[in-house]
Amino acid sequence: MDDSFYIEVGVFQKSHIGERICGDVFLSRKVKEENRTIVVLSDGMGHGVKANLLATLTATMALNFTVEHKDVHKIAEIIMNTLPVCSERKISYSTFTIIDIEDTGQTTIINYDNPDAIIMRGNELFFPEWHSISLDTLAKKDNEIKACTFKAKKEDRVVILTDGITQSGLGKGKYLLGYGWENTRDLVTSKVAENTNISATKLASAIVNKAHTNDEYQSKDDISSVVVYYREPRKLLLCSGPPFDKSKDDYLAEKVKNFNGKKILSGGTTVDIVSRKLNIDVEDTLEFNDPDLPPISIMEGIDLVTEGILTLSKVSGILEKYNERTEHGNGPADKIIKLFLESDEI
Prior knowledge:
Phosphatase 2c, domain 1; six-stranded antiparallel beta sheet; 16 strands
């Protein structure tokens, strides 16, 4: 794939009311050796532990078979022959959607019984040609498995869902027949139009939260949305410490000047070199947001200017203990970590 592509995958889920375990299962894997990204979303019948086990079985098979480059027909056939079938309704106990993104940007989507994928090309809906996969299954009849393949472009998005979204609000209020695919599609297009840079996770959460609202915050099903966003990588440069050889000061300043991304300068000597060589003034502030550290400074064209060794030592200490529950302050070290977390390449 073109090096300027970055594949951002975001997911957001809410469980059926009263359940701690979600019956929808999301799996994703980056195959570094092949520069491939594989995403799977499966919806187990019902909710709770049983649904989760069925969806986990399905999603794991789908992911592993896709990694092995099995033909899409073969993947679908093996999964359909393996899945148990409801004896009364004669339907499979779980659904699945697979997205396989190759290193060329070639994207294949396989969908069984989940709502159709919503594909955006920039701010517009994109409709690739879908085809049905006919299967020689052992016990299941009239299975409609659909697939499409297209060449992705920068700023494309693929949104996949479980029916907890399209069926939200069913039987009450404004959406007696459920929220539906068309309303979900319109929500996606409006969110992208409002913010063309909306992240994959924020878009996925907006979709799920809308469905949760439709159910009056009492989810009647597990609700899941996954968004794949093809975009420019978010790059960050952290520059600290003067060159060993003073003759390299010009080289250092030019690297900072020409870097295409966000920039952090840490350390008084580093800041003085860049300021002098690029003729940029440094403005000190009195933002004492962290009693352990000197305040930040301001330089035109630089996103963050901090003191060096104390600040970077604190950054290191925070990262060593960092987890999802870590609370962010507003001091210089916290600002550096926030920029780290927002970046794809540092």
